[in-house]
Design brief:
HIT family, subunit A; 3 helices; 5 strands; binds adenosine monophosphate
């Protein structure tokens, strides 16, 4: 699969469509999800062209990978989420229902998030 430069997050990175920005640095852009699933629902995306967690982990440079994950902690800290806790999710591929094919993490918080996934999958 090749990276589609017309995906919605690529357009956000190019400032072709707006976002509700939470944080930005050399490696990452973080913005509020347009359809939040919890009181806090931030998306974090690397600035490079990576399709998924798998793609980013395989092809990202050490600086990109380190910078990206350190930014997740910075955003959680900036939003004051450490005390009550938060969840990080990355959907990868069809079974996980990944909709946008630019790698992203969901940072979700602000209430009791329940168990990790719905029961009854096995
Ligand atoms: P995923 O299913 O993991 O690919 O999640 C994609 C996420 O992107 C969903 O939670 C959407 O609500 C979110 N989303 C799609 N378009 C936008 C947008 N323009 N601004 C912010 N979030 C978006």
């Amino acid at each position: 699969m090749t990276y589609d430069t017309d995906n919605i997050f690529a357009k956000i990175l190019r400032d072709e469509i707006p976002c509700d920005k939470v944080y930005e640095d050399e490696y990452v852009l973080a913005f509020n999800d347009i359809l939040p699933q919890a009181p806090v629902h931030v998306l974090l995306i690397p600035k490079g062209e990576y399709i998924s967690f798998d793609d980013f982990s395989a092809k990202g440079s050490s600086a990109e990978i380190t910078g990206f994950y350190q930014a997740v902690q910075k955003v959680a800290s900036q939003l004051g989420l450490q005390k009550e806790g938060y969840r990080i999710i990355s959907n990868m591929g069809a079974n996980a229902h990944q909709e946008v094919l630019h790698y992203h993490l969901h940072l979700i918080a602000g209430c009791d998030l329940g168990r990790m996934i719905k029961s009854g999958l096995v």
